[in-house]
Amino acid sequence: MPTFSIIIPVFNRSEELEELLETIATQRFRDFEVVVVEDGSQQPCEHVVDKFKSKFPIKYVVQENKGPGPARNTGAENAIGRWLIFLDSDCMLPADYLDLVSCETDCEDFDCFGGPDKPHPSFNIKQKAIGYAMSSVLTTGGIRGAKENLDIFYPRSYNLGVRKSVFKVLEGFSEMRFGEDLDFSMRLLKKGYSTRLIKSAFVFHKRRNNFRSFFKQVYNSGIARINLEIRHKGTLKLVHTLPSM
Fold first, then answer.
1. Under 8 Å between Cβ of 219 and 177
2. Which residue, 135, 244, 230, 220, is CA-closest to 183?
3. pTM, 2 dp
């Protein structure tokens, strides 16, 4: 049984997935597996997955399009690691990411963790600008703002780890199209489980690469906040803080 199962839902992002898998291949900590879930893509990425089968244990699972939450649940069903790590397909990892996470999870005194994100030096100006804007309270509600509030920390699914046993108790992510990761973190905390910010375990996150997609994401974030308020009263009053770096 590996320590970590890295779960990556994919929808028409084969090129970005390949970049992520290349950085996973460089990890110094090797006790892991990868589960890629093809969520009804019109551009399948099986050929990308095949390139890495000789480099680390990797599974490729296909389902009809159901959205990110159900895709992550499918990945969890096919995972055998003690910890599940959820990454977005448009992320990349520093070579010491799993080393840092392993050092923290060895203490076994929390149930779920998250880390920040930062721009990779190779990102263009537009990608960096959009990443910076996504940290604003005026866009996503300060989800990744500059200040830290560690009393209540809500890990986000682009860089989220959770004990598999806890994931099963919570029955995974909901079928919400937007805000499903915050809903998961809120339900986890309400059940009495604990979260941890591992600030050193950051990911390089591309986010959207054009302004049309960016504004669509901002709009969807607004929908998510309304739906979260319906599910979890008082949500709109919260500022979910997670620092960008």
1. no
2. 230
3. 0.82
